[in-house]
C-alpha cells in the first residue's frame, strides 16, 4: 500500500532564472546511502518527520514548464508541501550577495541557481551534525544510517516499500521519545561515543524548545542551540545553515574549511579560523553563501597531513 499522494507544482519567481534543485538539496543528504534522502531516477526523495508526522517527498524538475513537481505521502504530506517553497530557497535573497573576489565572482556566475534551503526542522539537521563532531564524515554517515534503519520507521508511500525503482527502503528519523530510549549498547554499535550520544539525549529532551529556533533570527537561534551542553558554534552553524537558510552562519572550528577558503582566495596553505574570518569580512551577512560558492570551485590545498584518524569504537 502506497497511500494517498498529494501533489504541488512550484515555479521559481521570474527574476530567479535557473534553479539548481539537485545541488541545493545535496546539503541535506548525509552521504550517498542516506536512508532519509537520495536521488532516484532523476528525482530527489526525502523521508522526513514533520510536526504533523512522517512524510515522504519526491521532488522532480519539469524543465519544460520551468517548475518543480512535488509529490508527498503520509500524515505530514500537507505540511511538507506547504513548506516546499522555503525548502527550495524561496525565502533566500541571493540579490544581497556581492562578490568581492575574482574566484567568488566566477563561482557566482557559474552557479546562478544556487539557493540556500530552509527545512524548518531543527532535530533533522541537529542530530546528524552532532554525530559529525570530531570524527570523519564517513563514520558519522555510517552511524546515521544504522540508527535510522534500526530505530526509525519506514517512510510513507513508495519510498518505504522495496521495489525495482526503490530497491532500498527509506526511513524517517525516530521521534524524540524513541531517540531517548535507544540503549547505550546501540549507540556503541553505531560507533557513537558517550559524549555525542549524551548531547543528542539532552537535545531530544528539549526538542520543543529547540524547534522554536526555526522561527528565530540567526543570533537568537544560535543562542538557543548552544545553551545545550555539547552543542557549540560549529554544530549550531551546520544546523542553522539548513534549518533557517542562514546566509551568514559561517562554520568555525572545522578541520578543513578554513584551509580551503584561505587557499582558494589567497593561495596560502596554512589557513585557520582567524584568517578565514578576516577574508570573509567583506561578505558580512553572506559569509555562508560565500563559502558555499568557494567550495563549488574545487580549489583545495594540497594534502600534507594524514587523514583524520578513524577510530571504530564499535569494535573496542
Automatic annotation (TrEMBL):
InterPro entries, sorted: Alkylbase_DNA_Glycosylase/TA, DNA_glycosylase
DNA repair keyword on record: yes
Keywords: DNA damage, DNA repair
Signal peptide interval: none
Top-level taxon in the UniProt lineage: Bacteria
Listed SUPFAM superfamilies: DNA-glycosylase (SSF48150)
Name of the protein in question: 3-methyladenine DNA glycosylase
Organism this protein belongs to: Streptomyces macrosporus
Amino acid at each position: 500500500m502506497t497511500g494517498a499522494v498529494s501533489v504541488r507544482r512550484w515555479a521559481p519567481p521570474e527574476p530567479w532564472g535557473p534553479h539548481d534543485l539537485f545541488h541545493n538539496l545535496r546539503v541535506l543528504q548525509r552521504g550517498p546511502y542516506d536512508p532519509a534522502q537520495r536521488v532516484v531516477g532523476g528525482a530527489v526523495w526525502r523521508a522526513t518527520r514533520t510536526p504533523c508526522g512522517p512524510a515522504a517527498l519526491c521532488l522532480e524538475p519539469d524543465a519544460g514548464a520551468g517548475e518543480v513537481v512535488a509529490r508527498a505521502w503520509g500524515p505530514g504530506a500537507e505540511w511538507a508541501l506547504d513548506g516546499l517553497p522555503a525548502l527550495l530557497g524561496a525565502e533566500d535573497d541571493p540579490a544581497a550577495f556581492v562578490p568581492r573576489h575574482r574566484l567568488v565572482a566566477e563561482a557566482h556566475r557559474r552557479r546562478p541557481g544556487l539557493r540556500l534551503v530552509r527545512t524548518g526542522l531543527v532535530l533533522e539537521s541537529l542530530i546528524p551534525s552532532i554525530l559529525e563532531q570530531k570524527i570523519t564524515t564517513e563514520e558519522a554517515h555510517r552511524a546515521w544510517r544504522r540508527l535510522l534503519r534500526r530505530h526509525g520507521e519506514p517512510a510513507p508511500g513508495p519510498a518505504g516499500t522495496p521495489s525495482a525503482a526503490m530497491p532500498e527502503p527509506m526511513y524517517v528519523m525516530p521521534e524524540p521519545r524513541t531517540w531517548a530510549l535507544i540503549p547505550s549498547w546501540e549507540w556503541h554499535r553505531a560507533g557513537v561515543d558517550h559524549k555525542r550520544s549524551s548531547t543528542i539525549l539532552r537535545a531530544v529532551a528539549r526538542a520543543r524548545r529547540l524547534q522554536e529556533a526555526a522561527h528565530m533570527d540567526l543570533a537568537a537561534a544560535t543562542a538557543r542551540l548552544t545553551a545545550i551542553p555539547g552543542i557549540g558554534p560549529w554544530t549550531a552553524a551546520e544546523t542553522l545553515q539548513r534549518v533557517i537558510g542562514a546566509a551568514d552562519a559561517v562554520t568555525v572550528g572545522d578541520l578543513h574549511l578554513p584551509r580551503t577558503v584561505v587557499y582558494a582566495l589567497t593561495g596560502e596553505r596554512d589557513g585557520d579560523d582567524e584568517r578565514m574570518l578576516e577574508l570573509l569580512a567583506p561578505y558580512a551577512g553572506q559569509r555562508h553563501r560565500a563559502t558555499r560558492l568557494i567550495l563549488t570551485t574545487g580549489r583545495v590545498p594540497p594534502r600534507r597531513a594524514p587523514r583524520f584518524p578513524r577510530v571504530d569504537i564499535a569494535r573496542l
